[in-house]
Structures are given as structure tokens and as C-alpha cells.
Amino acid sequence: MGRIGRGVEKGSGIGIKVQHPPEWKCSLLHLHPHLHLHQLSDSPHCVSIMLLNGSLLLSFASLVLSAAVPSKLEARAGPYQTRIYESGSTFLQEDNGWWQLIDATGDGRPDLFYIKNRNTGTGYVEVHIASSTSNYQTRILEVPTTFVSEDNGTWRAIKSANSALPDLVYIKTRNTPSGYVEVHIASGASTYRTRTLEVVTTFANEDDGQWNVYDYDGDGKPDLVFIKTSNTGTGTDELFVASGASNYQTRLLSTGTTFAVEDNGFWQLGAYSSTRDLIYIKDRNTGTGTVEVHVASAASGYQSRLLDVGSTFVQETNGPWSLVDWNKDGVLDLVYIKIKNTGTGTVEVHVATGKS
After folding, report:
1. Which one of 27, 56, 241, 345 has the lowest number of neighbouring Cβ atoms within 10 Å?
2. Nearest to 216 by CA among 226, 224, 206, 208
3. Domain assignment present for 232
4. pTM for this one?
């Protein structure tokens, strides 16, 4: 807290000098409509203020609000400051595919889902799942799929309308026969043996960002999401969504965002304040030296930020980051699946709570 010293300044009134740490910002808070600033010192960290006509001007918001205003983004009390889970898993370290946490049993808790799309023993893309109830020590499924091994796009698991097992989605973004991005889906109900969708989309092939699927319009069908993070026309990161109802032929959204062009982490849509906010987990080149979480609101058309905060995790790029409601409290938690350079020699799951 700042130090308050009393003394007499020139002119009428009582002078109050406030000293505070250099990392605080000074901001003027008017407590009276007729209050006028009498004197400010030259020092950016020491402000003199006057009592004029019995009214007080406070030049620092922190004493009134009981909280310092950071001069830059800092790791501070708030969401993602406390770790609530850290564990190794049944999987040895490896980086031959796509990892995510998603409920694969119907109990509402996210299981560890590994889509292995290269260097597989079967020659096919494989799905391996470790259960959350076993603290990721027990594998509940290991199967080859209908897809031969290939690495020309993005693989994701999505909630299925027909089974507890998620469906498997392949967003093929290069080397497609059509020259357009393609979506291929194998059903969880068939244990990934049957393809339920194979379509060409409205998007020409490109790899200038991150692709995903998300039910953007709430119709129960996965929409195709492209977050373009380089070579954009607006000079900002851009968000594009094509509807699942149209078999990805119709775009629901094409917009720039509040984020300047950059690609230093992981992007997703998620239910932070609404169902489809834009989330950026920055895991390198951060200002705080920690992994940061940034959220732009869907309500603002992705022009306003809901959150810019550091976290309990120091910067590192040894696996994927995401926001997931890990403990079923209705709040998105920060999840890190560490797949290399781990202390246990196994793939690890680390979770920081989204609650402040």
C-alpha cells in the first residue's frame, strides 16, 4: 500500500503526499464534482494532492479500490493462479499425434484422448483413451480406425450425438484432391470403423492458422472453425466459421478480431462468458514470463477482451494447452498436456483452476 504523508503546501489547504511502488499506475479519481487538481509532483511515483474546500482528490485508484492497477499484464490473484491437479499417465512420452481432454465415458469428466496419426503399429490412425477415474493410469480403449495414417491436417475428437465415445474428425487442409479443405468424420458409435461424413468445404486449402470444430450456432452439429493467425487481410487474427448444417458450404462468420496477428500458442472457441468466446492461450513470447490466457467476447464481435491474465505456469512449449471444465464446476480450467521433457517420463496432465 502507498504511504501517506501530511504537510503544508503553498496556498490554502492541507497537502497529502502519496508514494507508491513504480509498477502502479496513477489514475485520477474525482470524489467531488467541484474538485480541482491543485498540484501534482513531477515524480511518476510520488503524487501530491490538496484538500480544497474540504474535498479530497485521490490520485491513486489503488487505495480506494484496495487493489493495485498493474502497469502491464502480470501474473496476479485471479483465475489460473492455483494448480488443482498434476499427474503422470499410462502413456510414455511421445509426440506422434494429437492430444486432448474430452469426456469419453459419459460421466462428465474429461478423459485423456490420444489420436495417433503417424508411426502407428497398425498402419492406421489409432485412438487411445485413458480414463479420468483412474487418474489417467488405465486405458479404456485402444483401436485402429478407418483412416490410414496421414498427417495433412488437424485431428480432433468431438462430442457425439449417438454415443458416449466422441466422434473422430479429420480436417484435411493440404494435399486434397479438390484443392479445398475437407472434413472427414468417423463415428464413436462404430468405434471409429465407419465414416459418417466426407465433404469438401467452402475453404480453399490453407495452413495459415489453426483449424477446429465447435458447435458455434447451437444446433447440435459441429461447425468448422478457422482462426487465421498469419497473412490476414485485416492485420489482425481473423475468425471464420462454416456451418455444419450446410455441410460446411455456408460461412456463418468472417471477421477480424481484437488480436494483432500472432501465433504464439493455442486458439479455441469456448464458453468463457458466452458459448463461443475466442480464447488464446499464449505459451511463448509472453510479457509476464508465464503462460497467459486471453479471451475476446463473442458479444462484442471479438473486438473486446474479457480477460488478459498470466498464470501459475511458466512459459513452456512441451505440449498442447486448452481451457476445459476439468472439475465440473461450470468454470473453464487451464489444462496442460505435457508430452515431452516431463519429470515422470510419462505424458502428464496439469490443471489450474479457472476460479479466482
Report:
1. 345
2. 224
3. yes
4. 0.80
